[in-house]
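We give this protein:

***
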Amino acid sequence: MRKSIVAVGTATIAVIVVLALMTGIIQITPPGGSPSYTPAVEVSKSSCVRSAGFLLILADLSGFNDSIAHGAPLNPWPVVQVHTGDYVRFLVCNDDASQAHGFAIETYFDMGVAIPPDAAFTIEFQATIPGSFIIYCNIFCTVHAFMVGRLVVSNS
């Protein structure tokens, strides 16, 4: 009986710690570094009409903006270059009438969004972390392996 109570208690603590890490209540600080930080991202349903200031990403059987023809996954496409402090605004349109596609950005938008056929979303955030980050499809689809782009955030 005592062993099962200890096991349940240990499992409960493990779940609480994992949830706290996922929600950002607890942050892990790398040695000599600042706490890990994920910028706030706004995601909204949209029509596939690009407003000024938005970068258009078309997801379809050709990948992201025809990434297959550009050599993805070995040559990520599109490559989006911004500076730290810039506001990044994507309009992601799924031009595929038969299947959903995903859109995610390493570090900035890991949870991503699933975009149903013929639907669109806007994704907005401030580029606060310099580096090179993979843009990828976060759900399995027939061209999943070829849906690879890159976001390059350079210091101003």
